[in-house]
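step: validate -> pass
step: tokenize input -> pass
step: predict -> running
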Amino acid sequence: MKNVLIVDAAPMFREFLKDKLSEEKIQVTVIPEKCDAIIKMNSLLPDLAIFDLNEFENIDYFLELLSDIKSDPNASRVPLIATGPATSRETLSSFIKYGIYKYFNKPIKFDVFFESIGHVLRTPFALDNTPCVLDIHRNDNVIFIEIAQGLNREKLSLLKYKLSEIIETHEIESPKIVLMMTNLELTFVDSLNLELLFDNILANSKILPRNVKVLSFSAFTKYLVDGHPKYDGIEVATEISQVLNSLVDSTTTSRVSDLVTDKLLTQSDSQAEGSIEMRFSSDAETAFPDSQNDGSQTAVRSEFKAPEDKRQRIAVIDDDAIIQKLLTATFTRAGFACDAYTTGTAFLAAVSKGNYSAVILDIMLPDISGFDTLKRLQGLPNKPPILIYSQAVRKEMVVQALALGAKHYLVKPQKPETIVQKVKEFINARI
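step: predict -> pass
step: emit ->
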């Protein structure tokens, strides 16, 4: 049986990795102390050792350990893979010199990561690469989970450990979960993935079914939950106000838009949880071949930057001058080109002449509505992904926008950086 040694990795990453490797009948040994790495490598002679640089005090300490491993006749024969933050070319060259086969920046592109592990162990891994955006953030004891595009089994598995990490870190005794899946139209084909999603949410004993609320327009989601005894108590709703009023204190305001802004869209100050740290090779990345020419390489995440004439172009359709300026400035800083329109008619005249990588569209426009604009975009051969950004919060309007092809629906106001991040996710999913 193949044996992999994991050295002092973060709990969420460690537990996910153990589960995934165990599925392939690979024995996993975890050691909590970095100083024991060489001793364990000598006694086990594992087929692979994985290090998490985030758990080291500094890079110098890690390089010192690598130097000791390289000088040991037995430990030096063990292939090494490391993960951690983005680092310089000089540091990457040092890693290669000391025998690191590959170094992966976090968030890790797990398809490439497991491909590399499989190459070392001569064991192929089956990995779900379904496009999926999974965001998570917390407001007091309420944890908001948003899933869009699809249900990816790897991300759903990682969610279990992420929830436990949040609950433990913030010492939440009675966590409440709001699961938002308004972007997904699910059928019986998705039943196994839905069960995996709910099972992983309920895997933490502190999360009770009655404290799990699901926002979904999918009739099948409600059908599955209502017919499953394990999920008795989980509520599936189509009204955002119904979800929020049942979980958070709404005594300070009766307006749904205020609740959405104050509770759902606002993260607790102590920590922004962000996206589940799992990416795939379809995400934009830059690969640097190693200086030793031995075939290894380092995957490095890079912010979207391009020459002026090759920048991704974004359209913002909104008659609010302040929102136009905020979004245009933020997209430009992020390396995009951005065109702003105050009417749907002006945008439709322009979109037929040029290509847009994404569109930010308000529902309430002074001429034709956002719905009419969506309808007229249906015939485009390469219709760009469309994000609705509006103050409209009625369920019927959200459903209509999504039914007409919008990829996502965000309620005003949002931080401009949030809009940019969503657009990046849309573009990366299309690459």
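step: describe -> Confidence is low (pLDDT under 50) at residues 252-267, 274-278, 281-309.
step: cleanup -> pass
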